[in-house]
């Protein structure tokens, strides 16, 4: 049986081995730190993009909700039983949506009090203006006919996007998808119905990080068709 030699010296790791181990450890640690930093940066960017998307979506929903109900008139249903509704003056026909020449503002009438008369007191509208070099969306809340040419922040116009956080650098509205069809033709007179589809395009970016950019587009069917 071999005896254990208690006097034999134990040989540890050499200096070279220690240096190699430390180098490997440093490389692994640096890789972990870089991975964590990249993960945190990606997470921060995702949070910013989500915030921008949510804020833009809220503004878009406010506009689509109102324009979808635009031109409502409590007496509109009577037009379907009166082929002369739009021309004989007996009933107030629903008004059309008016889009500015630049396509960055639209106004409409809405019979909010259900009295059968969509007047200026029932008007609404949305537009893009520049305030302090930042684009914002404003909503009309006044009691008269809105003007798209009024200055930013004019009486009756209220911001629905925050210029401290978000820059709406582009906003356009068009009705290129709308169409008109004849619903009655007696050989002498015709009654046509205008089916309106409004397309909205909204583009925005964060004020504090203009590399975060989002774009949204929506097509809205106006529920109250026009008889012409």
Describe the protein's topology.
Elements: H1 15-69, H2 76-79, E1 98-99, E2 105-109, E3 123-131, E4 134-140, E5 157-159, E6 166-174, E7 179-185, E8 190-195, E9 197-206, E10 213-221, E11 226-227
Task: Please provide a written account of the structure.
The chain is of the alpha+beta class and 228 residues long. The chain has one domain (45-227). The chain is built from two helices and eleven strands. It has helices at residues 15-69, 76-79; strands spanning 98-99, 105-109, 123-131, 134-140, 157-159, 166-174, 179-185, 190-195, 197-206, 213-221, 226-227. A five-stranded antiparallel sheet has the order 1-2-3-4-5, covered by helices on one side. A hairpin with a 6-residue loop joins strand 9 (197-206) and strand 10 (213-221). The longest helix has 55 residues, at 15-69. The protein is elongated and about 115 Å long. The termini are far apart. The model has no long low-confidence stretch (mean pLDDT 81).
Short structural description:
By secondary structure, the chain is an alpha+beta fold. The chain has one domain (45-227).
Q: Biggest sheet: strands, sense, closure?
A: 5 strands, antiparallel
Q: What is the overall pLDDT average?
A: 81
Q: Could you tell me the radius of gyration in angstroms?
A: 32 Å
The total beta strand count reads 11
Tell me the number of helical segments per DSSP (H or I, 4 or more residues long).
2
How are the strands ordered across the major sheet?
1-2-3-4-5
**End-to-end gap:** 115 Å
Number of domains: 1
Taking pLDDT < 50 over at least 5 consecutive residues as the criterion, the unreliable ranges are none
Percent helix range: 25-40%
Q: How would the global form be characterised? A: elongated
